[in-house]
Design brief:
Strand content: 5-15%
Strand order of the largest sheet: 1-2
Radius of gyration: 43 Å
Helix content: 55-70%
Structural class: mainly alpha
């Protein structure tokens, strides 16, 4: 995409050359910062991916243990789900949401918070109480792990989109913007050099024409038998000669 013919349409001048150099420096600085940001996001992305794999593996074991604990509690205490639903007035476990700043990117972080008291603490008092408490602890652990996994997956998706956008910007600056500015600087430099060569050639031709005209004038004067007056050198205003006194 960054062909040599692609450049910014500017008038070649010293000021334009200075502006292009400033823009090139800014583009290089922006490319460096975006590259560092992409590296930091990629590092965090890989850490979250590794933790997601671990949590999904752990989630299978936790859910299996919780399911076995529920079956054991139903076997020991009978069907107790109706009693639990009747005693619960509000949710005990609530999900909290905060934000984590990673290289300027806001990542949502979910957590669990225990509120209120245990409304069904006396459930299974006659039989199966120990199994019900074990079942409750296992499912609490499963809920906490599920919320953590949801937080990790949300951060994973957010980082994935941000990394793609940052990499597109890095590639655009590296392969489009910087080459275009460099081509513009080369164009302005070549045009200014060409102008200097043209000016030097013009001055040289003027000197040659003046010399030819002078030679022709001297030759014509000699042909007429006239004496050629020598060229009087102008005196410098900064010389050491004494000036005449002026009376006012």
């Amino acid at each position: 995409m960054s062909g040599k013919s692609e450049r910014i349409n500017v008038f070649p001048s010293r000021m334009a050359l200075t502006q292009m150099k400033v823009r090139l420096k800014g583009a290089q600085k922006g490319h460096s910062l975006l590259k560092k940001k992409a590296d930091a996001l990629t590092l965090r992305f890989r850490a979250i991916l590794k933790k997601i794999v671990q949590n999904k593996t752990l989630m299978g074991e936790v859910m299996r243990t919780a399911s076995f604990a529920l079956a054991e509690a139903n076997f020991k205490a009978g069907e107790f789900s109706t009693t639990v639903l009747q005693n619960v007035s509000s949710a005990t476990v609530r999900v909290t949401a905060t934000k984590d700043n990673v290289a300027g990117v806001q990542l949502p972080v979910f957590g669990t918070e225990i509120q209120g008291s245990n409304d069904f603490a006396l459930t299974g008092l006659s039989r199966g109480g120990q199994q019900i408490q074990t079942c409750k602890q296992n499912w609490d652990k499963a809920v906490e792990l599920l919320v953590e996994l949801a937080s990790l997956q949300t951060s994973f998706v957010t980082l994935d989109e941000t990394i793609k956008a940052t990499n597109r910007r890095v590639n655009a600056i590296e392969h489009v913007i910087i080459p275009r500015i460099e081509n513009t600087i080369s164009y302005i430099t070549s045009e200014l050099d060409e102008r200097e060569r043209e000016e030097f050639y013009r001055l040289k031709k003027i000197q040659e024409k003046k010399k030819i005209a002078k030679d022709k004038k001297e030759a014509a004067a000699r042909a007429l038998g006239l004496e050629v007056s020598p060229v009087v050198q102008e005196q410098s205003m900064l010389g050491d000669q004494q000036d005449e006194d002026l009376l006012f």
